[in-house]
Amino acid sequence: MSFTKVSVAGIGTTGTITFTNVNVAGVITATSFSGSGANLTGVASTDNIRTNTNATFLQNINVTGIVTASGANVSGVSTFGNTVVGGGTTQLIVTGDARITGILTIGTGSITLDGSNNQLKVGTGVTITTNGIIGITSINDGPLAGTRNRIINGDMRIDQRNAGAAVTISSTNVYTVDRWASSESSDATFTVQQDSSAPTGFINSAKITVTVADASVAASQYNTFSQRIEGLNCADLAWGTASAATVTLSFWVRSSVTGTFGGALDNSAYNRSYPFTYTISAANTWEQKSIAIEGDTSGTWLTTNGIGITVYFDLGTGVDNTGTANAWVGAGNVGVDSTVQLVNTLNATWYITGVQLEAGSVATPFERRSFGQELALCQRYTFRYSADGSINNFAPFGLARYYGTNDVQLFIKFPCTMRTSPSSLTQVGSIFVNNTGFSGAALTSIVLNEAAADGATVTGATTTGITAGNATTVYSDNASNAALIFSAEL
Amino acid sequence: MKTYKLYKTMMSSETNAAMYVEDGKTISFMFHPDCNEYKEYLKWLAEGNEPIPADQPE
Predict the structure, then answer these.
(1) How many other CB atoms are found less than 10 A from the CB of residue A147?
(2) What's the pLDDT score for residue A228?
(3) Burial class (CB within 10 angstroms; exposed 0-12, middle 13-18, buried 19+) of A156
(4) Contact A462, A441 (CB under 8 A)
(5) For residue A100, what pLDDT is reported?
(6) How far, in Å, CA of A151 to CA of A386, rounded?
(7) What CA–CA distance (Å, rounded) separates A355 from A205?
(8) Residues A451, A397: Cα–Cα separation, whole Å
(9) How far does the CA of residue A165 sit from the closest CA of chain B (Å)?
(10) pLDDT digits (tens, 9 = 90+) for A52-67
(11) B-interface mutation test, from A182, A423, A489, most B Cβ less than 10 A away
């Protein structure tokens, strides 16, 4: 039924008209609508639903497309699938708690918050965990804290004994550059010398040169380069207990021989060891190596001024003193079975520097210490008391006294307390002593006398006819670069 | 070949140290069990060598 014009009493008034069906081609204008809208269709197909006032939905809103809004306030618990917040200006503001059950990734994966594992990671360099440990590779590419490195003179700058001269190794535990010793018990001979070849950031290395080769090192023979770390300087690692700390050994190395080399960490009794390997890929090229080692929960590890940990680099050792890599074993070893033996090759060279042994499983940048700091650390073990006459003739050593008609006693005060009373003295150059007025004579037979950790007396002989008890002075002999070298090494 | 000469320190009543010359350097050492030079000296002795006795007091 259709109408072209309806004129009914009540339209335009407040009355009510009831229709069963009404088809309207034009616009219906009304002040309100009531009734079920369940069957209203096509409302949004012609255009957006628009409202200039607030809209209230008392039930769910299901949207299969994209919701675009200039702002959104959500109360109660809401579930979002893929949600893009903002456009040109991206902001997500949460007032109150926000909980993410998965991993929150910021950027393109460089920063992650992992609630399941309680970790905050920034790239691969920083990891913060709930146990209070911050794993971080460096701060401003520099040291993270004082004295991380348990190795002293790891960059081989200090050479009090030899001042850069080569030392021929033909016996056991011969000290070369400060704190570093070499041992040789084979048919080979090699030299150790402070060298200026070094990777960027270093000025020195220790250079080993094979001067007599041993093509077949016997089972019991060994050739090593090592440092003995004082127990007081590694006690905190708690080795030998269930709390043994992981350490990382890192170093720069180059060699004329390529292949897999060995080394080991040992205790003082030489009945616990952890052999390790490292590979030199290219000949005569500096390469940096890093080895993480779980702490030893067994054995006896001294925490005194004795040997705490010995770090060995194997230069060619027989099977009696080598073992399987990457595991603690209840025996002493200095290397790994079937690895490169440098001493097999005449004139082979092997350089090392930047040696660092630190707590933790990550190798951090080499700990930089001033020259004076490093020298002071070395002086706990070796003290070179110099009187360099080549700079100033008759450079002074100090005051002494005659205790006999031709015997002189000189007292030396050490600059720091040594590890223990020095047990050896090396005298180099010529030493001169006044006898009467400005005259004097050479001091001979100079030997270590009584010694303590803070000082020692040195005695020597000179011309006869001296009055016992008189004081005198001791110098370098004219232009001689003389020195007294006290050793309290491990 | 090293040649060791014994001596005693001023306050000691008996020989307690030794010295030798090597490469123009004079090395003296105490008879201390942890001293590397002393260990080498003991090896040298074990090979049948004999040191030069200490000087007698004047």
Answers:
(1) 13
(2) 98
(3) buried
(4) yes
(5) 80
(6) 25
(7) 10
(8) 17
(9) 12
(10) 778 777 877 777 777 7
(11) A423
DSSP structure class, residue A381: T
**Two structure tokens written together for A160:** 């009090």
Instruction: Provide residues of B within 8 Å CB-CB of chain A.
Output: 7, 9-11, 17, 19, 24-30, 32, 34-40, 58
Q: Which residue among B10, B24, B37 places its CB closest to the CB of A450?
A: B10
CB contact under 8 A, B27 and A489: no
What is the identity of the amino acid at A403?
A: Y
Question: Distance (Å) from the C-alpha of residue A217 to the closest C-alpha of chain B?
Answer: 22
Q: What single string gives the DSSP state of each residue in A57-81?
A: -SS----SS----S-----S----S
Nearest beta carbon to residue A424 from set B7, B10, B27: B27
Mean pLDDT of A120-141: 72
| A202-223 pLDDT tens trace | 999 999 999 999 999 999 999 9
ipTM, interface predicted TM-score of the complex: 0.95
Q: Check: CB of residue A332 under 8 Å from CB of residue A270.
A: yes
Q: Kindly tell me the number of DSSP H helices and DSSP E strands found in chain A.
A: 1, 28
pTM: 0.79
pLDDT of residue A80: 62
Q: Which residues of B touch A173 (CB under 8 A)?
A: 36, 39
Q: Which of A183, A409, A424 would you mutate first to test chain B, the one with the most B CBs within 10 A?
A: A424
* pLDDT digits (tens), chain B, 58 positions: 789 999 999 889 899 999 999 988 999 999 999 899 999 999 999 999 999 999 876 5
The separation between CA A37 and the C-alpha centre of its own chain, rounded to angstroms, equals 72
Percent of chain A residues past pLDDT 70, beyond the cut: 87
Cα four-point dihedral sign A212, A216, A218, A224: positive
Q: What are phi and psi of A157, to 5 degrees?
A: -75, -30
Q: Are A257 and A350 in contact (CB under 8 A)?
A: yes
User: For residue range A456-485, what is the model confidence (pLDDT) as tens digits?
Assistant: 999 999 987 788 899 999 999 989 999 999
Mean of the pLDDT values across residues A364-378? 95
Q: Collapsing DSSP states into helix, strand and coil, what is residue A460?
A: strand
Q: Tokens standing for A3?
A: 């109408």
What residues in chain A have their Cβ under 8 A from chain B's Cβ atoms? 171-175, 403-405, 409, 420, 423-428, 445-451, 457, 459, 487, 489-490
